[in-house]
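Illustration: Enoyl-CoA hydratase/isomerase, putative.
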Amino acid sequence: MSVELTLQAPVAHITLNRPEKSNAFDNTVIESLIDAFDRAGADDQTRVIVLDAAGKHFSAGADLNWMRAMGQLDHEENQRDALRLAALMARIDQAGKPVIARVQGAAFGGALGLICAADMAVAADNARFCLSEVKLGILPAVIAPYVVRALGPRQARRYFMTAEVIAAPRARELGIVHEVVAEDQLDATVEALVDALLKGAPEAQLEARDLVRRSDEQPLDENLIGYTAELIARLRTGDEGQEGLAAFLEKRAPAWSAS
Ligand code: ACO
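Result:
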């Protein structure tokens, strides 16, 4: 299987498992990833999804044999195919659980979309990133909304156009990943993020993700202000809010917390 889903409550691992092709993804891999995110997102026992990869590299991006074969299909078929990658990006971005990307080795082309669509990403110090598409005569199209959101438009213009290889420390500066650690510290770093996530309330975390998106995308007007007031009014009177506030005041762990 080119994608493995391992449900080990409270964590689901979705693992790119095509190391002989540097975890390059074709339409089969994309469909398997969509299915894995749907299943992990819907699993009641899962609290966090870790997107990781077997072998030396996280992913070499789109499978170039598959991309070349697209030349045999008409425009409509090409568009339909590209929309499946877009569907995958949206699945990761709006997954039913928080998503952590765990990155080692190369993350090229479309792989950057997978990483930037995740809520957070940690990389080994050997990781290197590249929006290599223009070197191949194409461009990072479907992943652009997620990559530009992470890098900001000015940095994105440079790296979309130059296809320079970005070393891990620079990727952290640019906002592609949140942490860079020695490869043997990757699992411990992911675990620390998982532990932090498990202490938070699941519904509040998904609302928080949505709040960040709205705050970033919407004008700061009465609509957004009204939305933020409605949100806290709803959450502090809801089950999770009441449980979390009571737990703090009663000096006990809230019901959702694993510890
Ligand atoms: N598609 C299909 N096969 C690939 C891809 C790819 N994107 N990338 C690597 N492979 C294959 C290689 O052809 C090779 O297969 P082979 O052993 O059958 O010849 C195998 O994976 C291993 O690749 P190597 O290049 O030998 O591994 P190395 O560790 O030296 O380099 C690296 C890895 C940096 C990822 C390199 O393979 C590379 O630059 N690949 C292209 C990456 C790229 O530009 N991706 C963007 C695609 S466009 C897009 O995503 C929209």
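Reading the tokens back as a structure: Residues 75-93 form the longest helix (19 residues).
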